[in-house]
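Pasting as-is:
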Amino acid sequence: MTKKEQTEFEKKVLEQFMSGKNLFGEGGAFAPMLKNVIEKALEAEMDGHLDEGERAKGNKRNGKGKKTLKSGFGTFDIDTPQDRQSSFEPELVKKRQTILADNLSEKIIGLYGLGMSYRDISSHLSIYS
């Protein structure tokens, strides 16, 4: 996140907070951040899944699917990576799972609040999932 983007983000958070608007739901300042972290973590899981053995079997990326997730903070859409043989089983947001665990949302936002980057949070989540 560039300095300008961070300043704009902080301005939006403060503006929504002072007006009493929901920071996490649709249109909330934290909704895009949560979406971005989850998508990057799923990409990291896909990278781990498509190791040399999988690639040798002819498996590779095959675009993205859409999924609507519900959390305690609202509903949002994410893009989920797919592979040709449909053998990818994500751990963070499992297939057919539509409700995001509330504690996961809080952890992501907490880690971001502590200054971790999207990449750091994604790698942290992929280690523990």
